[in-house]
Amino acid sequence: MSLISEAHAQAAAPGGGGMSQILILVVFVVVFYFLLIRPQQKRAKEQQNMLSKLATGDEIVTTGGILGRITEVGDPYLTVEIADGVRVRVLKSQISQVVPKGTMKGA
Q1: How far is CA 91 from the centre of its chain?
Q2: Do 86 and 64 lie in a common domain?
Q3: Which residues sit opposite 76 in a β-bridge?
Q4: Each residue of 26-38: pLDDT tens digit?
C-alpha cells in the first residue's frame, strides 16, 4: 500500500517543464531553418538566376556531365552542340553550371 500512495504523490507534484519544452522546440525550428532551409533557398535562387542568363554561345555542363555550347535558347529547352555537327536538346533545368568560354577546346 505504501507504493501506491507514493505514486499518487509524485503524479500530483507540479512540474515547470512545459515552458522549457516549448523553448527547446522553438530553438530547434530556428536552427533547422538556418542550417537547412535557408541555404537551400539561396542555392535555388542562384540556379534560377544562372538559368535565366543563359545565352547562345555559352559553354555549359549538364547534370549528366555533358559539356557543350548553346546554339539555340528556347523556353523549356536548349539546343546544345556537344561535338562538331552533333546537337542535342536539353531541358534548361538539367544545366548544372556555365563554364568559361574556351573550355570545350581544352576538353
Answers
A1: 18
A2: yes
A3: none
A4: 999 999 999 999 9
Q: In the predicted model, is pLDDT for residue 15 greater than 60? A: no
Cell of 84: 562538331
Report in angstroms the alpha-carbon separations of 6 from 10, 13, 15. Answer: 6, 11, 16
Integer Rg of the chain from CA? 29
Interval 7-30 mean pLDDT: 76
pLDDT: is 106 or 46 the higher one?
46
Strand pairing category for 95-99 and 59-62: antiparallel
Classify residue 49: in a domain, yes or no: yes
71 and 102 share one domain:
yes
Residue 95 belongs to a domain: yes
Instruction: Classify 67 as helix, strand or coil.
Output: strand
What range does the domain containing 88 cover?
55-106
CATH of the domain at 84: 2.30.30
Per-residue DSSP letter, 94: G
